[in-house]
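User: Some background: our group keeps a shared notebook of sequences we're curious about, and every so often someone picks one and asks for a predicted structure to add to the entry. Today it's my turn. The entry only has the sequence so far, pasted here. Could you supply the structure so I can complete it?
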Amino acid sequence: VQLQASGGGLVQAGGSLRLSCAASGGTFSSYAMAWFRQAPGKGREFVATINRSGDSTYYADSVKGRFTISSDNAKNTVYLQMNSLKPEDTAVYYCAADETPYLRYGSRWYAYWGQGTQVTVSS
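Assistant: Of course. Here's the predicted structure to add to the notebook entry:
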C-alpha cells in the first residue's frame, strides 16, 4: 500500500490543522493506521492509531483530548484533527499502516509509511 500525507502547514499556537493520509494500492479496511511525528533532533514519536474497522483508537498522552484520529473507508483516507496546537507539536508528521487487527503504538510494527508533512506551530 502507498500512503500520501497532506495538510501540514504553519499555524499559531491554539490553532487547528487537519492532516490527511490517502492510501492506494491495497485494501484500506485491512490496515490499522497510525500517525507518528518527528521533531528536529528527536526520534520518531507515536501520536495516534485507529484499528481496521475504525471503531477503536489510542492516543499518546501528549495529544489526548486535543487530537482526533478518524478514518473514512469509502475514501481510503485517515485523518488527524489537531486542535489547541502547541509549539511543542512542531514536527514532521508521518502516517503509517500495517495489516494487524491490533492497536499498536510502536513504529517497528508498521510496515508502510507515507512521506511526511511538516507542521509548524508558532508561539
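Suggested note for the entry: The mean pLDDT is 95. Residues 98 and 110 are 5 Å apart (CA to CA).
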